[in-house]
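Q: I have two molecules that I believe assemble together. Could you output structure tokens for the complex as a whole instead of separate predictions?
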Amino acid sequence: MSDIKIQIRNLYKSFGSNKVLQGIDLDVHDGQSIAIIGASGTGKSVLLKCILGLIKPDSGSAMVEGIETVGASRQTREDVLRKFGMLFQGGALFDSLPVWENIMFRFRQKNALSIDELRQVATDTLADVLLEERVLDLYPAELSGGMQKRVGLARAIADKPGILFFDEPTSGLDPITSGVINRLIRNAVDRLGATAMTISHDMNSVRQIADQVAMIHDGHIIWQGSVKEMETVDHPVVHQFVHGLPTGPLTKYAESI
Amino acid sequence: MQVLQIPGRATLSMLAEIGRLSLFIGQAIFWLVRPPWYGRQIFRQIIDIGYYSLAVVGLTTMFSGMVIALQSYTGTERFSAEGETSVATVVVLIITRELGPVLAGLMVAGRIGAAMAAEIGTMRVTDQIDALDTLSTRPMQYLIAPRVIAGTICLPFLVLVGDIIGVFGGYVIAVYQLGFSPSIYLSGTMEYLEAFDVIIGLIKAAVFGFIVSIMGCYFGYHSGRGAEGVGRATTNAVVYSAILILVFDFMITGFAFVR
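A: Yes, here they are, computed for all two components at once.
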């Protein structure tokens, strides 16, 4: 039990009459890269936001390295957040700041490094995501979607966090760029020895990034196993989702709601 | 009983909105006075609000001063022979007490309140506010407090400049169109003007600056999803700012001038 980094127990979250999470239980072990899969609107991102403390769950527990984040004080939450790196779905880069300030945002708030040192660390981090120094002074609006994702990844790993979260890292990208992002994410996770949680419904991405997979359906985790097991799973819902079949229980479920 | 449901629901919804806004204002004030203060953010907002609004406020107050001069001349002509003094007095009192702060407030609401709501609303829908949070930076402190500080500080300065330009507009019309003596007009301007008039105008401006920035931030921060949500936030920020400016103008005027 001691190697459990993230432990979710009995997590519930509703928005009005819409019951999104209905008792989620999940363990993520140290160094594990887990992907949470599921159809659109099943609460994957809500689960992630509950762990990050961005959304308060109705009940249940979310512990990171043994520290409860649900209902935690602001100071406790900030201490936990320092262990995290997060890549948002659209990159979520700050429009008003150039690339280097986006990457070094957390460092800049600490006032611990000079501007030259900050730019040097930003340059090194950009190299980790295969971007050249010339983008340092560009603004997010001047970058392509793939470059924005890479800068977002650079910002997530700049502080060398022990836990990384990726929310739909390849959404809106072409297959080639998606492949590059997946490889960069996998490399970053391996290099940092980090624990990673990826929210995705891109199965190629899941296969490249994750060791473990958990599927959310109807507010519950209905299956969890390794990527290898996922390919041969006989659970009808998971099988349909993983193989992208047009007919099956998921189709009937989608039509019923 | 069903007849009561619609007004009941509307009342509850309105009370909930007032509660949310009150909490937001409380949090904003709390973070205004707590370090760290983000100097670069405050400076950027001061430039945006103060410097870039100068032209709009200046033009508005100048033409208002000109119109008041013309209107008061044609009005006082009917019953008073001392047009030169009364026109100058009317222009300076209306500009400093009323039109300077109100027009500056409304112009800044249209220019800055809308921009704040759109910028913060876009940050909300593109997860930038969540990103700030995950980077251990409090959005209220980093985004909201600098805007409220800058809005509250800048508007009195804008109004002060607007007062001078507005009075100058009246002077131009009085001297060059109506043929008044410059020295009599200027002495008429200074004779009845009291420091109290200007100070109340500046207090109004500070209150309006607070209103405009807090409404822009509030509606942006609670913006709905998508372009429609941001658009609605922007509209609400301007409309509610304008209404509150006029309400508070009435209240402050009643408190300061009616004995």
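A: One point stands out. Chain A has a mean pLDDT of 90.
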